[in-house]
Amino acid sequence: MTNGGRPAAASGGGGKDASRGDFAVATNRRALHDYFVESTVECGIVLSGTEVKSLRQGKAQMADSYAIVDQGEAFLHHLHISPYEQGNRENKDPMRVRKLLLHRREIDRLFVLTRQKGYALVPLRLYFTRGKAKLALGVCKGKKLHDKRATIAARDADRDVRRELRGREKA
Questions:
Q1: In this structure, how many other beta carbons lie within 10 angstroms of the beta carbon of residue 50?
Q2: In this structure, are residues 49 and 164 in contact, taking their beta carbons and an 8 Å threshold?
Q3: Would the CA dihedral through 140, 76, 17, 20 be positive or negative?
Q4: Strand partners, 136
Q5: Rounded to whole angstroms, how far apart are CA atoms 44 and 24?
Q6: Both ends of the chain: CA-CA distance in Å?
């Protein structure tokens, strides 16, 4: 067990951020590969009791999840939270649509941003802060194939520079 008695997250990115006291449950690494993140907003998420217990065990997958704004409310689709093992009939459907908790002006801003062509609301990280489950929601613009290649090339170049600097420090 790691993270102060909590198990590591199943979908990667699990760990405790000492600067904020966060416990990361899941990260959406695929989103950073497929999208440019224009801005982020932190929001709450409506969960049942057994879903919270399952999240504390690190049982969440957010690979294909996305958020929409519909009729003045924000909803999260395709977030998979595994049923709690010691749960009973109170366990909810793992893929159910969950409501996001945002202020009205934030919902209105997200609605306007997502109506622009190419923008989407993509969950980036699911974590706990002061005992509350929070979601980092990104306003993202899709990358084209050449953008992905440029990102990979820049990352490789940066890695080569760090490798050279490390080699010079040893000499």
A1: 19
A2: no
A3: positive
A4: 42, 125
A5: 14
A6: 39
Model pLDDT for residues 12-66, shown as the tens digit of each residue: 445 554 445 577 888 888 888 788 888 899 999 998 888 888 888 888 888 889 9
Q: What tokens were used for 37? A: 């993140």
DSSP classification of residue 51: H
Cα gap 18→8, rounded to integer Å: 15
Alpha helix ranges (H) inside 2-144? 29-34, 49-56, 104-114
Q: What is the pLDDT of residues 83-139, one digit of tens each?
A: 888 877 777 788 889 999 999 999 999 999 888 887 889 999 999 998 899 999 999
CATH superfamily assigned to domain 15-143: Small protein B (2.40.280.10)
